[in-house]
Amino acid sequence: MPVFSKTTLANGVRVVTAPNPQVGSVSCFVMLAAGSRYETPDAKGIAHFAEHMFFKGTERRPTARAISAEIDAIGGEFNAFTGKELTGYYVRCGSETRDIALDVLTDMLRNSRFDPAEIEKEKGVILEEMNVYLDTPQRYVGSVYDRLLYGDQPLGWDILGTRETIEAATRETFLSYLESWYRPERMVVGVAGRIGDGLLERLEDLLGGLEPRPTGAPAPVQLPSAGSSVALHTRASEQAHLVLGVRGYPIGHPDRYALQLLTVVLGGGMSSRLFTEIRERRGLAYYVHAGSAAYTDTGTVYASAGVDVDRVDEAIATILGELRTIAREPVPADELEKARGYAKGRFVLRLESPQGTIQYGLRREVLEGEIEEPDEVLRQLDAVSAEDVQRVARDLLEGKRLYLALVGPFDDPERFERLLAA
């Protein structure tokens, strides 16, 4: 029996449901195909800034306290998140208060005031969030890597924006962005858990007044071909944080599951190759893992680690050695089965709650326009062979340009370019 059902309101808003009557709660989401990739150069960070401002007051609930007090009164929790290609808002609460949650959520998205005084206050909050991010090199190195990989275009920009664009933002900056992208055809409502009756009628009342209008699409990514393969963010520290990777596949690529098992073998757990070799055998790092990041038209495969600054060269050389080995030699059957079990188990755990289930479904619907049922995902993982993993490893790793981002006390990129070329 399918986990997900999808219907469409009269104005084009899609509604995805994942009923689970065994629980007593309901998770209500609105997710949009809109994020930092949809920004212009003079409005960097506006997608994330807007996410903050939706919580600052509407016509009916004029203050942030009025909004939060209504959710507190039902024992709910609410939050939001901004990515490069999507933005999500949600409320979780008891099933009997579903309609209150939906009313608050849609009121925020449709009727927020964007009061200039509140905007000015929130600028300080965003700027402090930037400072926290800069002071967390384990996270910040990802931004350095994105800038290296994609350059001066939306996928290469920080989601938080820049100090200059945040300080320059006005009420009109928000309204222009929302008018362009917060449209019914880019919006998907997701409800999971003990859903109750009359959901579609309720959503028609709340969202039916949104008028559809074609919105276009963000500019296709342009992959830089020139410039250094090394990006350094120099700062005094005892630990170096690095991301080493190659270009990968877009989100809907047919080899996505073979790629997933490839990254699990490399660095998907405490018995993975990178963890075993770099942390357990050599003691080079506290954390090390491998992964992939996919967008609608591009992607990357990478390893990341936090290492002793005096042994960073050895760590990079060891990661390069593991990348070459997995492209050169088939993954043994027992190791592949362990990776398969890891990937399947983590996926199942992710879907254990209504919130996890609906987030999975919404991401697929927003980014790909369809949802692959969980049973099909597990079947696809079961179908991956050692030959598939090696074929993908060769395709992505053999003879391909390597990219290295580093945060630490380094100022000589040529030193690391030589390591990559070795």
Keywords:
422 residues, alpha+beta, Cytochrome Bc1 Complex, Chain A, domain 1, six-stranded mixed beta sheet, 16 helices
Overview of this structure, please?
Helix 11 crosses helix 15. Strand 9 (285-294) and strand 10 (299-308) form a beta hairpin. The chain has two domains: 5-207, Metalloenzyme, LuxS/M16 peptidase-like (Cytochrome Bc1 Complex, Chain A, domain 1, 2-Layer Sandwich); 230-421, 2-Layer Sandwich (Cytochrome Bc1 Complex, Chain A, domain 1), CATH 3.30.830. The mean pLDDT is 97. It contains 16 helices and eleven strands. It has helices at residues 46-53, 64-72, 98-111, 116-134, 137-150, 163-168, 171-181, 199-207, 256-267, 273-281, 312-328, 333-350, 354-368, 374-383, 386-397, 413-421; strands at residues 5-8, 14-19, 25-32, 77-82, 87-94, 187-193, 230-234, 239-247, 285-294, 299-308, 403-408. The protein is 45% helix and 19% strand. The chain has 422 residues and is α+β, with helices and mostly antiparallel strands. It starts with a strand and ends with a helix. The chain has a six-stranded mixed sheet with strand order 1-2-6-3-5-4, with helices on both faces.
